[in-house]
């Protein structure tokens, strides 16, 4: 019996070319995106109207006005509900159009692109200056477009997709066997890790889904799903029916309920509250109630069907009536306490079904409906089994079950080195030198002819080799070489990656007609170099664009 929610993905969109036009303006995807954004605008308008009406409602003392405003408020609220449902339905249509394949291969593709972005960032994006490159993305839940000039936004969005893809992989595992459950746990932990990494390291994203509170909510949601899988694992592997193992199941269920309650709390915070889809909040609430009910049910089964061999405290507070040590020894007392737990279970099941019934989208999930009805009926049956005709006193209120888990979820941080990539701009030379921090003069070509005193220069270092000094009046100086020049090519052949020894060797063996050296000089403040950088940048944007097209056409 598994039901797991959450299939979110930040939509992958290729960044438009520099002119700022949307290359996908004619596609089905972008039409959907625009509809999503439009509905979201309407939602915002309704919310402003609601805020105004609420203020008026509070401020006025006139009963007639109050009534009119109340009516208006109910209209606005039902409009809001409808708009949000429409948005969610559109979101589920987007689902079918998602791009990278939703499996390990899709993940690898995203990671590869992320790693490639690292190189692009180092090579072309100077630390203290923004370039005219815009990165366009759409919010995963509202479809609101956002745009930022920082490459970090692109990286963050890709990482968001990595997290979202992990949630999908997690949700798709077959959890009827432990192997599948373990894979799901692993995927949800990695999703939590990706969102957590975003929360800590990309805090300035312009879209709501990557705001701190949203990410915090997502991390907790992932943890809750891990905890739910752990519960499933425990129920699957504890076949022996002892009092203590049955209680462990009850404690695990209480734990799952606790973490879902925490998610619900996070979802009700400002900024997140009006943003999270109604069905998500409903689902989380259903789960909190459902697992609370299961904890009571399992405690009841432990008390009624098994004989404890020792005293166990498993409540958060002491139950009313005789001391627990006595209850556990006496079958009739145990039956009564068990019945009290079943009563709590039934109440919680009913609450879960009530919340479920309020949400149109959840009502469409047949499996969820089945699970809720099944466990409800099971608790009712057990209750009637425990009920005696001579039970005259009112069934007491049972305390909550102490929450405890055998597996504390981990937040698995993304490991970027699992997908090695080759820098696509490798031919520009080593990254440590040919990067955006360094400003280079244009390439100069000098002809060097060996004189009586040799070449008249000393070399140092590798990749690229540095001219460490020139002999005054020597050949090198005559030819125009200066201390601090870097040798990037010899006789037209690329030498940017060359080792010291290779350059020395080729210079020693050069024939009488001499060699041609291509050299560059490092200028930290040379404005002319800007041209070189922006020329490279054009290429970079094209490649960026190409990568994205690859990603989206997969
Ligand atoms: C944030 O980034 C740093 C290094 O870039 C990393 O060590 C750290 O683990 C990241 N934070 C999280 C929560 O993953
Ligand atoms: C990350 O992945 C690399 C390559 O698979 C591996 O060698 C390394 O141990 C991993 N690091 C962590 C922290 O798991």
TrEMBL record:
Ranges annotated as biased composition (Acidic residues): 387-397
Coiled-coil parts of chain: 73-100
SMART domains named among the record's database cross-references: BRO1, Hr1, PDZ
Residue span(s) of domain REM-1: 22-96
PDZ domain residues: 445-509
Entry keyword set: Coiled coil, Signal
Disordered as annotated region, ranges: 387-413
Xref: PROSITE patterns: BRO1, PDZ, REM_1
Stretches assigned to the BRO1 domain: 55-389
Gene Ontology biological-process annotations: negative regulation of stress fiber assembly; signal transduction
Gene3D superfamilies reported for this sequence: 2.30.42.10, alix/aip1 like domains (1.25.40.280)
Signal peptide: 1-20
InterPro entries in the cross-refs: BRO1_dom, BRO1_sf, HR1_rho-bd, HR1_rpt_sf, PDZ, PDZ_sf, RHPN1_2
Transmembrane spans: none
Listed PANTHER family: RHOPHILIN, RHOPHILIN-1
Family in the record: Belongs to the RHPN family.
Protein name from the UniProt record: Rhophilin Rho GTPase binding protein 1
Native source organism of the sequence: Salmo trutta (Brown trout)
The organism's taxonomic lineage, starting at the top: Eukaryota, Metazoa, Chordata, Craniata, Vertebrata
Annotated gene: RHPN1
